[in-house]
Each structure stands twice: as structure tokens, then as C-alpha cells.
Design brief:
Bound molecules: flavin-adenine dinucleotide
Distance between the termini: 31 Å
Low-confidence stretches: 1-7
Strand content: 25-35%
Number of helices: 6
Helix content: 10-25%
Shape: globular
Strand order of the largest sheet: 6-7-15-11-12
Radius of gyration: 20 Å
Number of domains: 3
Structural class: alpha+beta
CATH architecture of the largest domain: 2-Layer Sandwich
CATH class of the largest domain: Alpha Beta
Mean pLDDT: 93
Number of strands: 21
Length: 302
């Protein structure tokens, strides 16, 4: 599969590259919340070479570049963003390869695919993360975590693309992982290698299925138009603080708290992004005022 040159609409700074670039791409369709405006430029490169051409062109021309993964942790402003938004959805960015006790995976692969591929061949260490939506790239940047396990724990190395379009391998010791954060933030993550432990596939499958059920029971059901608002503070959960502060029934315009999972915001069709932002700030303010705790937002506002 190759991109055809000159397939972008005329007038784009990417016209001479062999990459299809969309102008004014609505980002609502690429995010879970389903709200927000357009990206000035948007592309899904089909190879590392085409990605490299786009990245270095953005660098040369001072065009901001952002990568979108599964869009489960991003809030796009209603008036859109002036940037090139890249989505690593093509097969070369989504592969999962097992080699002994190591798994190499593309950043665009879904986290759930990584976990299930590992479990299938009897490799343990990631199964607690099975219910987390999104991609491996998004998970690495925000150090996705559940039930005491985080993605960074099992990283051997990560391959990133630099602004000049070249690639670099970063070893585990050169990367910092903390709660809902990693030093990969701001880089373009291409792929990663995880080192895992051998275990019985049948036992692992049962454990993964159990975790899946637990995680799903803690998430809103029946809608995808949701996002997790806050990180859990040390020793407690954002959900319990929001409930204690009496915020379960709050709503602003088309954005409301999902009552049975109070750390999630849910949006109605046509909801402006500002409703989500205002609701997050309102909840934060009430929790601060009533309980003296400063909640840190998890969702990233672009
Ligand atoms: C229902 C629900 C349940 C959730 N449960 C959990 C949970 O249990 N634990 C948890 O930790 N999180 C949870 N989250 C939050 C979210 O799913 C995670 O943060 C997830 O890892 C985000 O991945 P993504 O691919 O969707 O990233 P996106 O939302 O697409 O992007 C998030 C950030 O990562 C950057 N990014 C994405 N891919 C790349 C890349 N390849 N290179 C560089 N930067 C990149 C983006 O630019 C953006 O800044 C939940 C969210 C929802 C909606």
C-alpha cells in the first residue's frame, strides 16, 4: 500500500509529499467524547517513510504536530486546532510480534490487542491493563495504569521519531514513568518492546477475562461519549471524592457527570467542548472547596 503524490487538496504545504493530507478534518469522529472542532491538517501515513516526510516538513515550516491515538483521553476545543494531526492507524504502525518473552508492538495498536496477544502465548505482566481503551502510544505517553499495574513497568525500549524525521531507540532507563505521565510526552512514539514473564496461557486467559469484567463494571456502559476527568490522588480515588463533594448530579449544557461512575464526563450530541471544560473546572472547584483536595485533570485539552 502506498500513498499517491499530489492527493492532498491544493494549497497545502504537504502537496508535494506522497501522503494524503485532509484539510479541516473534524476531530470529533476521532475522539471518544465526540466533541470539538477540526484539525487544520490531518493524515494517516501508510509507512514510516511517509510519516518521516510529514514530520520533517512540519519541523521545517514551524507547523505544530500532534499524534492522536484512540482519542480516549483528548478534548479538542470547539474552534479546532492549528496543527497537523497524525493518526498511526496503518498496518505498519499497528503490528504485534512475539519473540520469546519479548513483544514488539506498534504505537497505533490497541492496548487490548497487545494484552490479548501476550496472554495467548502465555506471557504475563500486562493483563491487568486489558480494559483500558486506546492505543499503545497513548498508553505509553500517559503511562496507562489499572489495579496497581502500569504500562511503563514492562517497557524494555521505545522507538520514537525526532522532529527531523529520524528515529531513535530509548531504553527503559532513559525514560521516566510516573502516575499518568511519562517523559515520552511530546515525542512521537512509533513502537515499543515489552519484556514479559512466562506463565500458563489458560490461567492468564482466566485472569485477563476477570480483569476485563472488573474494569468494564467500573466504566460507564451504553455510551462511548465519555472521558475520565481526573487522576486518582494518592490513597484515594477521584470518584469517591467527587461523590463525597456531592457532584454526582452536576451538568453544564450538554456535559454531565456519569452518576454511577462519577469520575467520568459524558457528552450529548452537539455539546461544545467548553461545556466539558467548564464542568471539569466546576467539579475541581467544589472538591477543593469542600474537601481541600486539588484534583489533577487526566484528560488532555488540546
Ligand atoms: C472509559 C474509559 C476508561 C479509562 N480507563 C482508564 C484506566 O483504567 N487507566 C488509565 O490509565 N486510563 C484510563 N482511561 C484514559 C485513557 O483511556 C488512557 O489515558 C489511554 O491510555 C489513552 O490512549 P489513547 O490512545 O486513546 O490516547 P489519546 O487520547 O489519543 O491521546 C492521549 C495523549 O497521548 C498522545 N499520544 C497518543 N498516541 C501517541 C503517539 N503514538 N506518540 C506520541 N503521543 C501520542 C496524544 O497526543 C495525547 O496527548 C480511560 C478512558 C476512558 C474513556
Amino acid at each position: 500500500m502506498t500513498d499517491q503524490p499530489h492527493s492532498s487538496p491544493a494549497g497545502s504545504p504537504f502537496d508535494d509529499l506522497a501522503v494524503t493530507v485532509q484539510l479541516a478534518e473534524p476531530l470529533a469522529k476521532h475522539t471518544w467524547l465526540g466533541v470539538g472542532g477540526v484539525a487544520q491538517y490531518f493524515c494517516e501515513p501508510v509507512s514510516a517513510e511517509s510519516l518521516s516526510a510529514v514530520v520533517s516538513r512540519c519541523n521545517e515550516m514551524g507547523i505544530k504536530l500532534r499524534v492522536i491515538g484512540g482519542g480516549s483521553n483528548v478534548l479538542v476545543p470547539s474552534d479546532g486546532i492549528e496543527a497537523m494531526v497524525v493518526r498511526l492507524s496503518a498496518p505498519p504502525f499497528c503490528g504485534v510480534e512475539v519473540d520469546g518473552q519479548s513483544v514488539r508492538v506498534g504505537a497505533g495498536a490497541k492496548l487490548v490487542h497487545l494484552v490479548s496477544a501476550a496472554v495467548q502465548v502465555g506471557l504475563s505482566g500486562l493483563e491487568d491493563l486489558v480494559g483500558i481503551p486506546g492505543t499503545v502510544g497513548g498508553g505509553l505517553v500517559g503511562n496507562a495504569a489499572a489495579h496497581g499495574c502500569n504500562l511503563g513497568q514492562r517497557v524494555h525500549s521505545v522507538t520514537v521519531m525526532l522532529p527531523d524525521g529520524s528515529t531513535e531507540d530509548r531504553l527503559r532507563d532513559d525514560i521516566a514513568f510516573a502516575s499518568s505521565w511519562s517523559s515520552l510526552d511530546g515525542a512521537i512514539v512509533l513502537s515499543a518492546r515489552f519484556d514479559l514473564d512466562e506463565d500458563d496461557p489458560e490461567r492468564l486467559t482466566k485472569r485477563m477475562q476477570k480483569q476485563w469484567i472488573v474494569e468494564r463494571s467500573e466504566q460507564p456502559s451504553g455510551t462511548r461519549s465519555v472521558a475520565m476527568m481526573f487522576k486518582d490522588p494518592v490513597g484515594t480515588t477521584a470518584e469517591s471524592l467527587i461523590a463525597q463533594a456531592g457532584c454526582r448530579d452536576l451538568c453544564i449544557g450538554g456535559a454531565s457527570i456519569y452518576p454511577s461512575c462519577a469520575n467520568y464526563v459524558v457528552t450529548e450530541v452537539g455539546c461544545p467542548s467548553s461545556d466539558v471544560q467548564e464542568l471539569v473546572e466546576k467539579v475541581r472547584g467544589i472538591v477543593r472547596e469542600k474537601l481541600g483536595v486539588e484534583l489533577a485533570p487526566r484528560i488532555r485539552v488540546w
